[in-house]
Design brief:
single chain; alpha/beta; 6-stranded parallel sheet; 4-stranded parallel sheet; globular; binds D-glutamic acid
Amino acid sequence: MTNLRNEGPIGVFDSGLGGLTVLRALHERLPHEDFVYIGDTARTPYGTRGKQTILNYAHACARVLREQRVKLLAIACNTLSAVALSSLDGELFFPVIGALRPGAQAALGVSTGKRIGVLASTRTALADAYPQAFSALDHSARVYVQKSPLLVTLADEGWTEGEVPTLVVREYLKPLLSHSIDTLLLGCSQYPLFSKLIEAELAPHPTPRGRPIAVVDSAQPLAKQVVREIAERQLATERTDPGKLRIVLSDMPEDFTVANRYLGRDLATLQVTAVDL
Ligand code: DGL
């Protein structure tokens, strides 16, 4: 007999459109699952706001999250994961998975010297949540967090190549390189769009063992964690046809060019609705 709960969608929650990188990673791994993506595009960015403001936003979104009847929720936004994970977890009646722990685990998994740099939003950096996530896994890791809010703005403008983003990335990497990091974690859902540029900037700075600095983006480890949780909690769909994607936004973008880049496909082919969050 079909388990109705298992046939509900997996939710992906983000402050805006950046979390579509996580939806993309998840859909590739779980092609038969339905997904509903909730992006607070009316109030993005969250990363430059105060803690209480973000908690208020998260609380306002919780009602819509409940209405979607998801079976499990992935918090794609690192800022929300840093500030509001436990509050959302307490308010919702389905499992809630944050981005920080899976990202930290993945970075530790590839780090050769446990000297790890993190690029993140201002609020994620101020919350000190990444150093805490790392130290819960490994006390000996040295973690250096660099706030990099301009990368959010550039990504949301679709400006991810050329002189301006290269200079911005270079400035943000300087303090991290001065700490001789061997691994860099991209601790924001927008940053995978800069992976190639960041790798090129890091190339002239190998680790003392002559290896390139490893770059880990937090979208992939979060997606892997969700796959594990779906299996462990026996929540997998029984369907074998392609799963559906629904996008729920609090403000409808004028065009989907940037969203298409985050998702890697044309949003116009999907069901996109506006909602008051
Ligand atoms: N998506 C957010 C994150 O992953 C950054 C964007 C924002 O500031 O809202 O931290």
